[in-house]
Amino acid sequence: xxxxxxxxxxxxxxxxxxxxxxxxxxxxxxxxxxxxxxxxxxxxxxxxxxxxxxxxxxxxxxxxxxxxxxxxxxxxxxxxxxxxxxxxxxxxxxxxxxxxxxxxxxxxxxxxxxxxxxxxx
Length: 121
Prior knowledge:
- By secondary structure, this protein is of the alpha+beta class.
- It has helices at residues 34-37, 49-57, 78-84; strands at residues 2-3, 9-15, 18-24, 27-32, 38-39, 44-48, 62-67, 73-77, 86-88, 95-99, 104-105, 115-116, 119-120.
């Protein structure tokens, strides 16, 4: 984990040897190109399951995905990603998807899905 001068610690999140994002403070940050990385039908953002688990272990309670093609920022609570998302495997290993309609965009407030004893409520 590295710390920026005066800022919160930053931890790289990897899938294999490839860095796919960073946890800074309580947020997992990821940059993608929607035309390549978003699920087309239904429209959703997908993650490697291990990357979400690693981000949680690093302290992430929120997820922030920036589409580098449009600059749009998608934000959700980690509990929402788990509770309202679904598992899939498109030949790249275990993935977890959350429909675009479940994400806050820009400055919209992020709702938080409460988790009790490991189950969303």
